Amino acid sequence: MVALVCAVGALLTGPSLRFSADVFEEGSIAQKKVRATRDFLVPDEPATLLKRQEASQAVLPVYDLSPGALGAAMESFDLSFSDEAAEPVSEREPPAPLAPEVMRERIDERWSLDINTQLAGALLESAQREQLRTLTARALEPFLTPGVVANSELFLREAKYGITVRDLEKGTSSTLKEVESTVDFDAARKELASSPPATIDSLATLARLMAAALIRPNLVYNQGLTQELRHEASESAGPVLYQMRRGETLVREGDRVTLDQALKLKAHATHVGAGEPRTIQYIVLFFSLFILTWICHEFGRVNVRKVTLKGKDLLFIASLFVVLLALERLGMALALRLDTEVAGAMRYCVPLASGLVIVRMVLNSETALVYAIPFFFAGAVGAGLESGLFFPLIASSLVGAHISGRAWRRMDFFRIGLWIGLAAALATLLVELQKGTLSDAVGWWTVLGAFLSGPFSGLLAMGIVPLAETFFGYTTDMRLTELASLDHPLLRDLMLRAPGTYHHSMVTGTLVKSAAESIGARAVLSVVAAYYHDIGKVSKPIYFIENQGGNANPHDKLAPSMSTLVLTSHVKEGVELAGKYRLGPEIIDIIEQHHGTSLIHYFYNKAKETTRPDVDEVREIEYRYPGPKPQSREAALVLLADAVEAAARTLPDPHPARIQGMVQNIINRIFADGQLDECDLSLKDLHLIARSFTRILSGIHHQRIDYPLAAHKEKRDDGDTDTKRQPQRRGQREEDNSKGEENLKRLGM
Fold first, then answer.
1. Which of 244, 416, 424, 538 is 20 to 30 A from 50 (CA-CA)?
2. Which backbone phi and psi does 62 adopt, to 5 degrees?
């Protein structure tokens, strides 16, 4: 699994790997001598720029030719003669023909041409107008067919080497090298309207002058298409490269870096144009990541007691590792696609710090620290070793893991995100100050991106932690807080069917909470486990003394071995109920371990007294709980609190000194019995636990003032009043003392 995850991690982070960080800016002083470690190609930017300019200039300007210009001109001609008839006098009479004078006036009005009366009269005939139209078209055609440009001076300047003519009507393009055939618009008009007579007396002259008025430029420069084609040609021109040999000196120490040297250093560091396969890089990164992860894994497994990972734990950590590296890869790809300096700060927005937060909340802080080292390495490599992300990633991740240790509400994720953002922003600020890039806007954008990684990390952790609880069966403090609700079906059932056990569980929870806080154990887990540790008693509540309420004890009619079987069965039934209601493996383990392998002294001694020594053999192992012994401090706390709380109920006179002695005796007995051998409680922890138990029990069993009852109650003949029982209090106390001694014997003390 480690090898597979490291291989995936190498694939996700490899393309961003930088083996050489020796890049100096132009004008700076080289801090060391740099020699080429391989053969590589360097882009010659001036030559590349010149090549692209030449490629752009080689693209001919594009002109759009409108062949329909002649037709448009003739349409304008036809419109000028479309109303040659006079207006009708009435609806019944036809319109009167135009007089020559009227035609002459209209020609002068529309064309600004003065024709004589004879020509005007001739134009009243349709045949003459058709001939005039033909002559006008013939006059325009020699100019419009090759093309008329608006300004020949600009045209000849742009079309020095020819033009590309795009026929808009046919949709074809052709190259025109001889541009002298094109005519300038002003020159065409001047040629058509040369030497006009004072009074026009012929159709040819009139047609030539009307053509001068109708002619328009029909060869127009397409600037947008020309620039687009030139840009494509410039981009398609490849870079000009020259080769550097391995061992060649790129820059010497103390030299002022020139532009050429800066380009060489950049190409050497980023493999520009190298054309080398990245296989070696992937292999080196894989082995580096694999060795580092394996060392950390073995160190934690051997030297850190809490790093006892199962298969699902490794699978969860591996899945989280891959998901976060994939998110980082996605952020890097987006930043590179935007291709701006500000977008480079997006690598700091990736919520990598959520990794330690999630592992800390789902598993423990020791596991988070052990696996943080390879994760930091992979995250820094994925962002680019020159990016400076390493220090902000470490600072923000550790701060987030520290804050998440006290998180037990969903809203705490926002607090965690805020602290992560502040830590990342401060660390990034220090990095930017060290690099000297904080003076420009890019540095502040980077700091802002680092701060935003905090809220993103909190939101991502909020989404992944419930998934880990659901799919991997983990029990976090937030899940425990939900289980601590007294509205849970199991606790409601326990309260209704076994109220004595319910009260005992609540008091046990109070004891373990105080003790867990005093020794630094998981208080939330201890309390919730204490609430549920005796849920197996709901199936046979009457067989447990706290639920009998003064009724007959059913164990009086059972053999000691059968009573032992009934008592020990509540552990197995509790485990089954916890599994049915999905309380989580940690609570199930504590339910299973909360009695350890302790001996049920009362029934063991009773069996020894009632059997014949020479016939029957009483085996001690048959009167012990099946175990296992407590494996964690939380399980040990529940075991101790369970025994202490049960014993405290039997004390006839529970004053503080007696409670302290009882607590110390029970803890000593459990310790001597070896029930704490497999958990990591120290003698100092046991001392703190005993002091905490004594303080809580002394508060619960404090002495109360015996208030006298009212005089009128003494006269009432009511068997339920305390007044009637007042004279018997001393005798009752003696009876309670005897029962208390019997209960202590039953508990084995």
1. 244
2. -100, 130
Predicted pLDDT of residue 726: 39
pLDDT at 21: 46
Look over the chain and give the mean of its residue pLDDT values, rounded to a whole number.
80
- C-alpha span between 504 and 99 (Å, rounded): 127
Task: List the chain residues with pLDDT less than 70.
Answer: 15-22, 37-38, 82-98, 153, 178-181, 246, 270-278, 336-344, 384-387, 437-442, 611-616, 702-749
C-beta neighbour count of 261 within 10 angstroms: 19
The rounded distance, in Å, linking the Cα atoms of 590 and 511 is 16
Eight-state DSSP code of residue 215: -
Distance of alpha carbon 264 from alpha carbon 201, whole angstroms: 82
Cα–Cα nearest to 50, from 209, 240, 289: 240
Single out the residue of 516, 521, 518, 490 nearest to residue 505, CA to CA. 490
Residues 6+ apart with CB under 8 A from 327: 350, 351, 352
**Is the backbone peptide bond immediately before 43 cis, with ω within 30 degrees of 0?**
no
Q: Give which of 394, 379, 386 is closest to 12, Cα–Cα.
A: 379
- In this prediction the pTM is 0.58
Pair type for strands 172-176 and 34-35: unpaired
Measured CA to CA in angstroms, residue 641 lies from 81, 189, 694 at distances of: 117, 113, 11
> Rounded CA gap, 340 and 346, in Å?
10
Question: What span, in angstroms and rounded, lies between the C-alpha atoms of 531 and 587?
Answer: 10
